[in-house]
Amino acid sequence: MIVLPERPAQATDPKFVQIYDYWSSKAPDGCLPGRQHLDPIDIPALLPGLVLYDVVTEPDGTRFRVRIAGQMIVDILGYEPRDRFVDEMVVPNKGSDVNGAFDAVRNERIAHYWENSLWTAGREYITMQRLALPLASDGEQVDMILAYHVRVETQ
Q1: Per CATH, domain 15-24+47-152 is 3.40.50.2000
Q2: d(Cα 52, Cα 81) in Å, to the nearest integer?
């Protein structure tokens, strides 16, 4: 039986609360929700900040590939990231940090929050908060990660 992770205390933005509540409401009893339980029609206001990552197991380890990204993410990155691996989208010394965070979501079935400047070359001046949540099509083995992003506005 799977116990859903709690929303990290730092994830206080109302949109994090909304996405977490939606995600947890879709979980079958004793299981993680899977992509099949989510319907974009249910959360249209949240779509711009969403990214779905596929978990891809390779001989050298696990990587995370963008399946779909919301328009805010596309606008901030300046390109469509679909089908790109997250470790290829960040500056070289940060790829293992991103993969490590997503590995924790996958392996430990946790909700992961962080706030950082973007690790994408040329976009380091943008600060983002991100909440990552595990998805499992079989209810147990994480095969996707649902991430929600909030841009931190600086004065």
Answers
A1: no
A2: 11
Amino acid at 152: V
What pTM, to 2 d.p., does this model score?
A: 0.92
Angle among Cα 88, 90, 92 to the nearest 5 degrees reads: 80
| Two structure tokens written together for 89 | 């989208």
Name every residue whose Cβ is closer than 8 Å to that of residue 153 and which is 6 or more positions away in sequence: none
Bridging pattern class, strands 61-69 and 50-58: antiparallel
Q: Give the model confidence (pLDDT) of 20-30 as tens digits.
A: 999 999 999 99
68 C-beta neighbours (distance < 10 Å), count:
16
What b/e readout covers 52-61, taking b as 16+ CB neighbours within 10 angstroms? bbbbeeeeee
Beta bridge partners of 57: 62
For the chain, the structural domain boundaries read 15-24+47-152
| Low pLDDT (below 70) residues in the chain | 119, 121, 154-155
